[in-house]
Design goal:
Layout: H1 3-20, H2 29-58, E1 62-66, E2 70-73, H3 76-83, H4 86-95, H5 100-104, E3 110-112, H6 116-130, E4 135-140, E5 148-151, E6 157-160, E7 173-184, E8 187-190, E9 196-199, E10 202-214, E11 221-231, H7 245-258, H8 273-298, H9 304-307, E12 308-313, H10 319-331, H11 336-346, E13 347-350, E14 361-363, H12 364-370, H13 372-390, H14 397-403, E15 406-407, E16 413-415, H15 416-422, E17 426-429, H16 432-440, H17 444-449, E18 454-456, H18 463-469, H19 472-482, H20 485-488, H21 503-528, E19 537-542, H22 551-567, E20 576-581, H23 589-607, E21 615-620, H24 625-631, E22 637-640, H25 652-658, E23 662-665, H26 671-678, E24 684-685, H27 690-699, H28 704-707, H29 711-722, H30 734-742, H31 748-767, H32 769-781, H33 788-800
Parallel strand pairs: 1-4, 1-12, 4-11, 12-13, 13-17, 17-18, 19-20, 19-22, 20-21, 22-23, 23-24
Antiparallel strand pairs: 2-3, 5-6, 7-10, 8-9, 10-11, 14-16, 15-16
The protein binds ligand 26V.
Length: 804
């Protein structure tokens, strides 16, 4: 063993003794994990302090990424790999009789996010640190992250609270000197000098809890600053003078409620007061912190836009626009115009969805009651927006109403996207099609008013976690074949393209895939008892359950395939394992119904001997980052089948392709750009384009008229309607069928024939083992551009003007 590993083993044993009071013989696995993390953290903290100092001394502009979600996952393996110390840590632990790999699985996922938006924030933090761009991520330290999902014996989703902090969090450091007061309610007045004073009815303290973000090769460490809430010291509030102990306790509980739980809804805004309180609590604390750090380093707020960029991850932190304006005007006495200029030059906004039901707006009375001064400033901003809009020849009265920060139709509401748009110098979508649709649809009038403000930054994924970390086999194979350059810059992975024609390489590539499938098979057997066939095609659809993502299209096709197998058991069927995973928002009844159906379909098919060896269906419970890290390397086929125009980008599509899965997908989101980089011949693209979808909506879509041309689907739907797939409760899926026949908002029927043809084409590809492997290799080789390092480089150059 190397000397460094020897020394490290001593350090870990020392941490075990001094922090936990244990000798190796008494240590539980959990103690070893914490001792290992705390020991590694010493190294991290030293680099962290050095990075922070260097940034300050060089006076560099910093990025502030404001996001209500950071879907990080586990940190130990990622961190030691980025430090280049993974082998050393494994050796040290081995010498102590401990297995690193099994320790790693004890670490809870930091699951502070719903899905793509939160995971993107985590990939961006990894890329910012890896590219040595100084950055803070700002978010909330939720006590309960994304709920964990069980599937009960009946096949229904059950939500259980997630408790990642139950055993403490060894990565975090509380910053007692970074504390800010956040107010709610009350009233404001203007004094004789015209200065505004807001007297909130409630105050809480936001306390910074920092987590280090270690970049690739450990060269730079950034900060993820998560806010926790505490009641203001009762002594200061003189509560104790009044002897009001229960009042003080109630204050503490009210403060904790703010950070209690991540809202698990990614389909419609919850619209609840607590959500708005969370948004303001976190935005206010973050903006105050940015202002304080800036003043500390630079002395004046005039230079804020030159030294700080603030990126809004969707509209969730958009109230921060009004908060910065308030601080500049009310606390720092800037005139409105100067304050607005600074604000607009500092903020930029990323939109992640065009689905109208997901656009946030707040009832005006609620916002006014909770944040009276902010509402006043929003009116002030809006006066300018509307004045400018009225002089714009491209905007008719309907256009003027559309750009207003206030929705006047029905109950008056504040439109957070319009606030974010007006308050930013840059507004971006997350894939080329999505950015174009922003210009043409939801934001068409804002785009007329602020021409040129919308730009595109196609999403990416960090190759450290989504290749190096989750697929060591493929990484080693690639390193061996094309050298290590791709581990520093994923663009070099293009060198693997010509290996698609190398038979020996293809065999090794298939061997890695087979081994990854075996690992997943073992995990599925342990978690569900189901024994999957590792030689079947692993056909996976893993993502949040949402109607627009069309898991139902996949399930219905699976049912049709099953009926075909039953009708012709001796046919030459390509063996498939249909793998589904994903969570449904707790309030999203239709999404839960889809999970239920997937499980009913799985029960029936898996129990039928006719399907054995030909078709298996499994719904894996509790999809999260760690499970994704197992699935991506084991997938053969990636289902990316959203109704065109509805999936802003997708990032699971990228993870699967980078790990050698072929995509069956629509021309939606980033699929389109993946086709450009991989080549159309190596993907199975099908279905309507976004323009065709829009045209069909305009022409009037009548799903039942299509049914006559889809006899197999018609039969499956009739059987489903009659309860053939739910013998214990015949009516269970009736409403699902009815909604397809009556409305079919996501146009499953319109795309069914094309999807079926594409699936047959996939079968033909699979039968040509060499052709399949060659395609898979070209998929891997084509993904260089989809590194989040590329995305971050574009943000840095075109939105933030920052450099390391
Ligand atoms: C939506 C909402 C809606 C209302 C308020 C609460 C809330 C919280 C989370 C979300 C998430 C929806 C937005 C989202 O995750 N979009 C996804 O963003 C990914 C990263 O840009 C992108 O790849 C996916 O296509 C897009 O669906």
């Amino acid at each position: 063993m190397e000397r460094s590993a020897d020394a490290l083993a001593d350090e870990i044993a020392g941490t075990l003794l001094h922090r936990f009071g244990k000798l190796p013989a008494d240590a539980l696995p959990r103690d070893w994990l914490d001792a290992t993390i705390l020991t590694v953290r010493n190294d991290v903290v030293e680099r962290w302090v050095a990075s922070t100092r260097a940034t300050q001394q060089r006076g560099l502009k910093q990025v502030n990424y404001l996001s209500l979600e950071f879907l990080i996952g586990r940190l130990l393996s990622d961190t030691i790999r980025n430090l280049g110390r993974d082998g050393e840590v494994a050796d040290a632990l081995r010498s102590l009789g401990v297995d690193l790999a099994s320790l790693e699985t004890l670490e809870p996922d930091a699951a502070l996010g719903n899905g793509g938006l939160g995971r993107l924030a985590a990939c961006f933090m990894d890329s910012l640190a890896s590219m040595a761009l100084p950055a803070f991520g700002y978010g909330i330290r939720y006590i309960n992250g994304m709920f964990s999902q069980r599937i009960d014996p009946a096949g229904e989703q059950v939500e259980l609270p997630e408790t990642w902090l139950a055993n403490g969090n060894p990565w975090e450091i509380e910053r007692r000197d970074s504390v800010h007061r956040v107010g709610f309610g009350g009233a404001w007045q203007r004094d004789d000098d015209g200065r505004v004073h807001w007297t909130p009815a409630e105050l809480v303290e936001a306390v910074a809890v920092d987590m280090p973000v270690v970049g690739w090769r450990g060269r730079h460490v950034n900060t993820l600053r998560l806010w926790t809430a505490r009641a203001i010291d009762p002594l200061q509030l003189e509560v104790f003078n009044r002897g009001d102990f229960t009042g003080a306790l109630a204050d503490q509980t009210r403060a904790e409620t703010l950070v209690r739980v991540l809202y698990p809804n990614d389909s419609t805004p919850a619209g609840q007061e607590l959500r708005l309180r969370q948004e303001y609590f976190f935005a206010s604390a973050s903006i105050q912190d940015i202002v304080q750090r800036h003043l500390h380093s630079h002395g004046t707020l005039d230079t804020l836009p030159d030294k700080a960029a603030i990126q809004l991850n969707d509209t969730h932190p958009a109230i921060g626009v009004a908060e910065l304006l308030r601080l500049l005007i009310d606390e720092h006495q800037l005139p409105y115009e100067a304050a607005w200029d600074i604000t607009r030059r500092t903020f930029a906004y990323t939109n992640h969805t065009l689905l109208p039901e997901a656009l946030e707006s707040w009832p005006l009375p609620l916002l006014g009651r909770l944040l009276p001064r902010h509402l006043e400033l929003i009116f002030r901003i809006n006066a300018d927006v509307l004045a400018q809009a009225r002089t714009n020849p491209e905007l008719d009265p309907r256009g003027v109403a559309a750009v207003s920060l206030i929705d006047e139709a029905g109950e008056r509401r504040v439109r957070m996207a319009n606030l974010a748009f007006a308050g930013s110098h840059s507004v971006n979508g997350v894939a080329a099609l999505h950015s174009q649709l922003m210009r043409e649809t939801v934001f068409a009038d804002l785009n007329r008013l602020y021409a040129g403000r919308i730009n595109n930054k196609t999403n990416g994924i960090t190759p450290r976690r989504w290749l190096g970390g989750c697929n060591p086999g493929l990484t080693a194979l690639l390193r061996d074949a094309i050298g290590p350059a791709f581990t520093d810059d994923l663009r070099h992975i293009a060198a693997a393209r010509s290996l698609a024609d190398d038979a020996a390489f293809r065999e090794r590539f298939l061997g890695v895939k087979r081994a990854n499938k075996a690992l997943l098979v073992a995990q599925v057997a342990a978690s569900t008892g189901l024994q999957l066939d590792p030689d079947a095609m692993f056909d996976v659809q893993v993502k949040r359950i949402h109607e627009y993502k069309r898991q139902l299209l996949n399930i219905l096709h699976t049912m049709v395939l099953y009926e075909r197998i039953r009708a012709r058991p001796q046919g030459d069927w390509v063996p498939r394992v249909k793998l589904f995973a994903g969570k449904a928002a707790s309030s999203y009844a239709r999404a839960k119904q889809i999970i239920r159906l997937a499980n009913d379909v799985a029960h029936r098919i898996n129990a039928d001997p006719v399907a054995a060896g030909r078709l298996q269906v499994v719904f894996l419970p509790d999809y999260n980052v760690s499970l994704a890290e197992r699935i991506m390397p084991a997938a053969d086929l990636s289902e990316q089948i959203s109704t065109a125009g509805m999936e802003a980008s997708g990032t699971g599509n990228m993870k699967l392709a980078l790990n050698g899965a072929l995509t069956i997908g629509t021309l939606d989101g980033a699929n389109i750009e993946m086709r450009d980089h991989i080549g159309a011949a190596d993907m199975e693209i099908f279905g309507m384009t976004a323009a065709e979808v829009a045209a069909l909506v305009r022409a009037g879509y009548r799903p039942t008229e299509l049914l006559a041309g889809l006899p197999e689907l018609e039969q499956v739907l009739a059987a489903l309607r009659q309860g053939e797939w739910s013998p214990d409760d015949a009516g269970r899926h009736a409403t699902l069928v009815d909604s397809l026949l009556n409305e079919d908002r996501y146009m499953l029927l319109a795309d069914f024939a094309a999807y079926d043809a594409a699936q047959s084409a996939v079968d033909r590809r699979w039968r040509d083992r060499d052709g399949w492997a060659a395609s898979a290799v070209r998929n891997v080789a084509g993904m260089g551009w989809f590194s989040s390092d590329r995305t971050i480089a574009e943000y840095a150059a075109e939105v933030w003007q920052v450099h390391g």
